[in-house]
Amino acid sequence: MYSTDEDHTTRDYTLNYHIVWIPKYRQSVLTGEVADRVESIIHEIADDKGLDIQDLAIQPDHVHLSVSSPPKHSPALLANWFKRISSRKYNYRHADRDGEKIQWTRGYYAGTTGHVSQETVERYIQNQEENA
Q1: Which domains does the chain have, with CATH numbers?
Q2: Which pTM does this prediction carry?
């Protein structure tokens, strides 16, 4: 989409990414209150960064996120933001001891939803909750 004003032309872009990451050692720590808190923090990060969460599923041992972003943010940057900021905020706010801290693995999966529809990715994420 193009929009113009008197002096210049700008483009508006939106890219949709499916990002998946897991806790260190794939421990099933994302349950109950922990999952609720992580979900809230992920939404907070998206709001702070001006991103639009399309869908989110917190499983006991992994997180599925479908997020819309302008092209100035690489998938690596998005994954880094969500992983780094969520663990830092969670650990600062809710973890009194080392055993309660959230730690993510170094890796992640990131894919665009261009080869499948956004609805397909959202259905897949929602089915993860049903199959947990």
Answers
A1: 14-131 (3.30.70.1290)
A2: 0.80
